[in-house]
Amino acid sequence: MLADAIGLRRENVPQNKFPLRSRSGRGEGSRVNKYEIMVCNPPFGKKITEKRPKVLRKFELGYEWEEKGIGFKKKSDLLESQETGLLFVEVCVIQCKPGGRIGIILPNGYLGNRSHKYKIFRDWLLRCCRVVAVASFPRFTFKTSGADVSASVVYLEKREKPLKKVADDKNYNFTVQMIENVGWNLGDKKAAARYLRDQLDGSYIIGEDGNRMLDSDFASMLEDMRHSNAASDFPWLVAGKEADKKTEGWSVSIKDVIDDPDRTLDPKRHCKKMNALRSEIGKKPHFKMGELIDFIPERTSADRKRVKQSPKKLYKYIEIQDIGWGDYNVTELRGWELPSRAKHFCEPKDIYVGSIWGSVSKWCLMPVDCDGLIVTNGCHRLRMKAGKEKNIVDLVSFFCSEAYAVHPDPLPSRCGSGEGELFCGTFSRRRCWRTNTGLISVAPSALFIRVNLCNSCGRCSHLVP
Fold first, then answer.
1. Between 396 and 429, residue with greater pLDDT
2. What is the Rg, in whole angstroms, of the alpha carbon atoms belonging to the chain?
3. pLDDT tens digits for range 307-331
4. With contact defined as beta carbons under 8 Å apart, do 437 and 134 qualify?
């Protein structure tokens, strides 16, 4: 799939390995600007790092960078260490010819993480290359190799000359694809093949070659790429292929990335489904989340005073796996037994939402009697803004919807695996629809949750299962 998308025949792929030796730097050796097409799977992970100064000084990404206006400026100070995966990307860009193509597998953390290091990386990458496509794999795709990561294939075209700043770029389109079926069982170390079957009788579907057809999205993904507007900006996507002009594939303007201060390239944010959801919510009466809620920091009270736990006190601890759709379970522990992640001291009317991509659908609302309840820092703690208490209905309605579960912007910041964390600033900018009632009943997982609003004050008075 990688080679096919960038027009590379398998028999022409040189099987070279490029270790990060000191001699493989920017100004030495014969590999600078050498290759027209590169297909790569770098060794990525926060624990796989390069610390040797003689190697780091060979790379732009081996130095400290400081934010200057809407861009970054390289400093003269070397980093103490850098992820080998990031340096590997720079090796590919160095060795690719101007105008050449790169197909590289990267963790989604590189593409969406808001931390300083990854923002620098994306800004550098956009100055050196044009993004042609991002195709996301489902989690556990690489389980057989021991990698539990969410990753994407990123297709790049090296610029003739790096831009001085990303804002100087001319507008063009790139395509974003979400692969759900890869042709084998995910999460299975044996990676048993999965074949297409007739939905009526379960019989296997046979291809033109007489063999069973794999249940994968690769062929349809490539077709969508070639029918997208990206093909007009990158003609080599359709070189030698006949494209049906009546069909239009999904594409995104690079301006959407350039206008984002974080230069986010995460496919979950730019995919077709996410954009359709934003558009749908935007057409209806809605709020921005930041208009309704405040974020409360860890180990603080609602009035922003520091809270200390007592070693002898008996607490009711709520872990992330104990939270469902509005409900929760507790484990009783003494203060000295609590894990270090027990950092939110509950107060009446607190709202807790999962902060990690895999737990975004989890949420719970604290009752009036919540003395001794303490929640993991795997959640964000929210409270309704003064005067907005009556809009708890809108918030709860949104939390119980599929739109909320798939809408959060993935912000991987805990690791390079792409397991995203919901960032407060982006969360606050998200849109929540407005309901037309003061009473809501929802039935997630056969559990009926009823949120009653007090007629006298408009505040949520209790949560009754």
1. 396
2. 25
3. 999 999 999 999 999 999 889 999 9
4. no
CA distance 307 to 344: 9
Strands of 440-442's sheet, edge to edge? 440-442, 449-453, 460-464
31-44 b/e (C-beta count within 10 Å ≥ 16 → b): eeeebebbbbebeb
Which domains does the chain show, CATH number per domain?
2-180+217-270 (3.40.50), 285-464 (3.90.220.20)
Report the amino acid identity of residue 276: A
Q: Which two tokens stand for residue 191?
A: 């990676």
Measured CA to CA, the distance from residue 383 to residue 359 in angstroms comes to: 19
The string of pLDDT tens digits covering residues 112-158 is 988 899 999 999 999 999 999 999 998 888 777 766 778 999 999 99
Closest CA to 410 of 128, 151, 117, 147: 151
Q: In terms of C-beta density within 10 A (0-12 exposed, 13-18 middle, 19 or more buried), how is residue 428 classed? A: middle
* Pick from 220-224, 349-353, 411-415: least confident: 411-415
Structural tokens at position 79: 């980093």
- Which segments of 168-249 does DSSP mark as H helices, in order? 218-227, 230-233
- E-only strand ranges, 70-183: 71-78, 82-83, 96-107, 129-136, 151-158, 173-178
The 8 Å CB, 24+ separation contacts for 188-192 are 188/143, 189/143, 189/144, 190/144, 191/143, 191/144
Residue 68 φ/ψ, nearest 5 degrees: -130, 105
| Alpha helices in 129-271, H assignment, sequence order | 218-227, 230-233, 254-258, 267-270
- The model's pTM is 0.74
